[in-house]
């Protein structure tokens, strides 16, 4: 008997691990291995106020922007949509299945405000290059 989509029963609970659905050789996995944003978070702290509503996580912002640059997503509106839909992008951004993707307007304000005045992206790329160089140097000694 040919099955139909309507014949499937919906499960109340799912056993789903996002990690298992991002291929081992995916570009974002390779970048995640060398991307350290702890120092960037510390250096961006002065651009955030201690009062008011919680802001968008700067690490999430940087990761989303990297996705946009890497995959040629030039529109902020489209980037927000793509991060919402794509499992690999959600994994890379640390959102899991239930994490909220920032609204486009909040994303835009943060990007064109705080990030424009800081040297966040230079710090990110220098950090990646230092990590990659350290790993390469370590392997050369073996």
Record the SSE blueprint.
Elements: H1 27-34, H2 38-44, H3 58-70, H4 76-85, H5 87-93, H6 104-112, H7 114-117, H8 120-140
Give a brief rundown of this model.
With about 140 residues, this protein is mainly α.
What does this 3D model show about the protein?
- Helix 2 (38-44) runs antiparallel to helix 8 (120-140) and helix 4 (76-85) crosses helix 5.
- Residues 135-142 have low confidence and may be disordered.
- With 142 residues, the protein is an all-alpha fold.
- The protein is globular and about 65 Å long.
- The protein has a domain at 25-34 and 56-142.
- It has helices at 27-34, 38-44, 58-70, 76-85, 87-93, 104-112, 114-117, 120-140.
How many strands in all? 0
Q: What is the element string, with H for helices and E for strands?
A: HHHHHHHH
Count of helical stretches: 8
Shape call: globular
Which bin fits the share of residues in helices? Answer: 55-70%
Q: What are the low-pLDDT stretches, counting only 5+ consecutive residues below 50?
A: 135-142
Name the beta content range: under 5%
Mean pLDDT equals 79
Structural class: mainly alpha
**How can the largest sheet be summarized?**
none
Termini, distance in Å? 60 Å
Q: Rg, please?
A: 19 Å
